[in-house]
Amino acid sequence: MIKIIFYKINRTHIIITLISSSFVAFKFKLLTLMTRPTLNLANNDIMKNKTKSNATYNPNTYHLDIPGNPSTATSSKISLNDRSNGKPLKVLSEEDWAFWKHNGYVVIKNAVPKKQALETADFIWEFEEKDTNDASTWYTIPKRKIKMTELAGTGMVEVYNNQHLWNNRQTQKVYDAFVDIWGVEELWCTIDRVNLNFPFKPGFKYKSFIHWDYDPETKPKNVQGVLALCDQTDENMGGFQCIPELFRTYDTWKLTQPEDRDRFQPDIAGFENEIVKVKLEIGDLLIFNSTEPHGIRPNLSGNKVRIAQYISMMPAEEDNHSLRDWRINSWKNRIAPEGHAFPGDPRNREQLDYGVAKLSKLGEKLLGLRKW
Fold first, then answer.
1. From CA 111, how far away is CA 286, in angstroms rounded?
2. I want to staple 70 with a disulfide (CB 3.0 to 4.6 A). Which of 63, 107, 300, 306 is the partner?
3. What is the number of domains present in the chain?
4. Contact predicate 331/49, CB 8 Å
């Protein structure tokens, strides 16, 4: 008996003639292909690389069940800059450096040009198919469930390798700021996403929470960063908040906590008045130590939208060939990281609607495509 089966894969229809005895095997194969987010029969570039794409996986599996970005190592083999190398700071002032050491975070003013930041923000609105001037388009159900349920509703946008994001990563001042923090020039950037945080309204709220993305008990050698893509000077709009006092006193604070405490979400009783709501202007870059307890503050502004890009860098691991290969594949085929906090975009818009980002020589090094 001959069966004609119709399948729709992405935006292309395929007609396959199957003999019934082989039906189960072929059907299984087709369904497997259909669930692969990297497959796009309308995109020749992805088709050429689909074998490599499907065979390449992220070797950093530490974050499948806990927070943290798997596009770089969880903790660097190199310590953060202690200024013992005698090199002058490129971007940070001495006042900035003292603030960084005492508070665990620092703000670099005008890290990217305002025009570049605005273009990135415009792209995010377009990518999410929302209208900045029409609030009725802002509130939609999540496109895919996220394992880290605390982030549900906080406005995470599942885009990672668009040209606009890479433009910001490969901006010289952004890179130089991270060189100051690490004390080395051979860095890789994280492949991370953006945030579009809308004002609270009935049915669309989230519980603001303080957390760590890396267990502070492991003393991670890592930093994280947030680039402001709009002014965030109103403390009532969703933006970055942290507790420098807990950053400073963690080792004594933990002695007062139970052994089975949550290693990623601290009990902040007694620190409520110590929460710092950091104000940023468009183009500002905030860098914070991964041992800094932090979070997104609730957007109670009523009409203001917080827009930001997550950017960080850490020492390159050029000998880690599997991680390097994954990073290059992620950029080339617009593949999202997989992890506890990274659900991906079921629409596959990065693959379907956008091309491969063009990189400068600096960008190629920050990715791992070119060696330092």
1. 9
2. 63
3. 2
4. no
> Is 199 found in the same domain as 112?
yes
Q: Which domain CATH number covers 96? A: 2.60.120.330
Give pLDDT, residue 144.
52
Q: Are residues 120 and 203 in the same domain?
A: yes
Tell me the residue type at 91.
V
For residues 100 and 106, the answer to whether their CB atoms sit within 8 Å is yes
Residue 205 structure tokens: 């709220």
Token duo for residue 288:
């914070």
Q: What is the pLDDT of residue 88?
A: 97
- The whole-angstrom separation of Cα 43 and Cα 32 is 19
Asked if residue 47 is part of any domain, the answer here is: no
CB 338 within 8 A of CB 64: yes
Residue-level pLDDT at 60: 55
Looking at residue 58, its pLDDT comes to 61
Nearest to 335 by CA among 70, 53, 44: 53
Looking at the domain assignment, is residue 204 inside a domain? Answer: yes
Does one domain contain both 246 and 338? Answer: yes
| Residues 350/160, Cβ–Cβ less than 8 Å | yes
Are the CB atoms for 343 and 158 separated by under 8 Å?
yes
Could you tell me if 319 and 354 lie in one domain? yes
Token look-up 């579009």 returns 196
pLDDT mean for each 10 residues of the chain (372 residues):
38 36 36 36 37 48 55 87 96 98 98 98 96 92 54 74 98 98 97 91 75 92 97 93 97 96 94 96 98 93 95 96 94 83 75 96 98 97
Residue 42 included in any domain: no
Distance from C-alpha of 112 to C-alpha of 225, rounded to nearest angstrom? 13
Within a domain: residue 40?
A: no
